[in-house]
Amino acid sequence: MSSPGYRPTPAAASQLNLRGAVDLSSLRRPASPPVPPASASPDGGAPGGGEPVGGDAGKAPLRVDATESNFQDLVQLSAQIPVLFLLWSRYAAESPAVLEAAERVVESYGGRLVLAAADVDAFPQLAQAFQVQAVPTAVAVIKGQPVPLFQGPADDAQIRDLVEELLKVAAANGVTGSIGDGAPGEDAEPAPLPPLHQTAIDAIEAGDYAAAAAAYKQALLEQPADADAKAGLAQVDLMARLENLSAPQADSLRDLAAREPDNMDAQLGVADLDVSGGHIEDAFQRIITFIGRNFGPERETARVRLLELFEVVGTQDERVAKARQGLARVLF
């Protein structure tokens, strides 16, 4: 992987909604908690070393080395404090400097967030989980949801600007914990989910999207105003539609959509792909364009799918507000 040289901007974090399309449940949760990193070896350790930032024996690590084994525990930790994943590679020249800068910035916040350094060469599934296209890449996770921050080189000041915005997003979502002098996660347990929501999450982790959808539907039957269940159902439905779609099939679907702009299934399928890949505005515009060109049952089917994708992205997202205006124009 190579760096595109993208520079982060302070606004990037605040513009992102916590309901990302990245499926962080793709790596199974292990039984053990995150383990503080060991010292890096000269022949293959992470840039900047593997010791906890701050290094005092009695303090919890502010940096851990993310692995496929502790990934889900780090995601779970994000219910208490933001976890900043820095995906790096020894083959990317910018990685050492960016990782060291991230360590310094995270240390300066005294436990208000944790840095998880992920070696994509050793653990390629981590790169897949975040749909990383280049390294170094920084992606924060808050309450189990990804918040992309930047790709490419970044210095202390740029990372600090993003962290400031990230902490605002975290606070707005009730994530205000701190590690302090204890181990990650020992000071507070995340609030338990409602039973049907927990059933849905367990089913997602088991890859049983039908069972997850059933749990969310039951939750909505009991509480029709349950916004989290509505969003969860939309996300599960999206994951189910994409579950068995191979890369060649996705390419064929895109080709078909390009050839047949009035093929509803093709247009909606590509919109699903775009949302899952983070191309939110492209997905919305594709469906709005289809709605503007068609009438009858297909138009209504497309409109309902668009509303479902609004739930996936988050109804408060600026891109959703913009798309709603576009939808209104083609409908009325």
Task: Give a brief rundown of this model.
This protein is an alpha/beta fold and 332 residues long. Helices cover 48% and strands 9% of the residues. The protein contains 13 helices and five strands.
Description of the molecule:
A hairpin with a 2-residue loop joins strand 4 and strand 5. The chain is built from 13 helices and 5 strands. The N terminus is likely disordered. It has a 5-stranded mixed sheet, sandwiched between helices. Helix 3 packs across helix 5 and helix 6 runs antiparallel to helix 7. The chain folds into 2 domains: 162 residues, Glutaredoxin, CATH 3.40.30.10; 137 residues, Serine Threonine Protein Phosphatase 5, Tetratricopeptide repeat (Alpha Horseshoe), CATH 1.25.40.
Give a topology summary:
Blueprint: H1 11-14, E1 63-66, H2 71-77, E2 83-88, H3 95-108, E3 114-119, H4 124-129, E4 137-142, E5 145-151, H5 156-172, H6 195-205, H7 209-222, H8 227-242, H9 247-259, H10 264-276, H11 280-293, H12 297-313, H13 318-331
Parallel strand pairs: 1-3, 2-3
Antiparallel strand pairs: 2-4, 4-5
